[in-house]
Amino acid sequence: REYREAINILRPIASSGSDVQNAAAALMMSRAEFGLAEPKLKVVTDIDAQLYALVSALRAEYTEWSSLNSLAETAESFDPAPEQADINTKIQERERAIAEAQQNAAAVKARVAELEAQANEASDQAAALRVREQEVRNQTATLSARDALPFHEEAASLRREADAFEVTAETLQSQAETIRPEIIDQDLEVERLTQQRDLLVASAQEVAAKAVEGRDEAADLREQATQTATRINDLVQQLESMRTGGAQTAIDEAKASLEAAGSSAGRARSADRSGAQLATGEIQQAMGTTLAAHAATLRHAATVLNPVSYTHLTLPTKIVLWGGGGGGG
User: Fold this and answer.
1) Cβ neighbours of residue 328 under 8 Å, at least 6 residues apart?
2) 62 closest CA partner among 215, 219, 234, 216
3) Greater model confidence, 84 or 271
4) pLDDT: is 312 or 212 the higher one?
5) Is residue 310 exposed (0-12), middle (13-18) or buried (19+ Cβ within 10 Å)?
6) How many C-beta atoms lie closer than 10 Å to residue 169's C-beta?
């Protein structure tokens, strides 16, 4: 209302004053007319958001419809034998792999135990040599340096032997620690394969259950698909109504307001060329952005609607679609 009042006030000024006054009044009129268009552009934006929501709902319903029909066909003509055979083969493969992983884990555990036993033995030998070394050194306490020399040499030899055994013990223990994680790896592999086998067993049970469900399940699924198709039709009709109704009306009204704003801006060109160009550019950008976004929304809708329109499985009720990628109208 304020914009309309401003336009009514500015209209006589834009045609009766000096060129500068006329240009200023024309630009203000253009701004007011642009303001009249903004709510209509907002309507288009809001409708686009609603269209996206409807399209998302339609996609979900169509996915559900396709799934229900697929399940119904499976229930009507399901032969469990090939699938059961395939699952049983995979179960046997997993069981063989489990046995192999268990054997590998046992082999690693045995090797770790063997290395640790060897390390302990070497460590014990080193400890015994250390004791013997000390005993030999103790014998030199009351001897002269000359008489003690053979004992010192023997003690040094015992120390070297002990050092060698300690190095051997450390090496063996390090080897055991290096391969010890393989036990965890193999245990985890057993757990993973066991889970896979259990899932396969569960799948086999599900397949067996499917085989006895028969036509009653198929009839129920077909009924659900019919109900879903009805919802799809409703959504399509809502989409079409919004596309040809509210959105198009808002676009037409926004165009009219923006064209008036553009015309007013154009009248200011002779006295205020830069101001007129700036206003015109803003008007064109607003319309272009809105139309581009609306066209993208319609293309998105058409992309979702195409598989619904051309599916080889005929929907129980008719769906009316618009063709192409959708335009800005």
Assistant:
1) 251, 291, 292, 294, 295
2) 234
3) 84
4) 212
5) exposed
6) 21
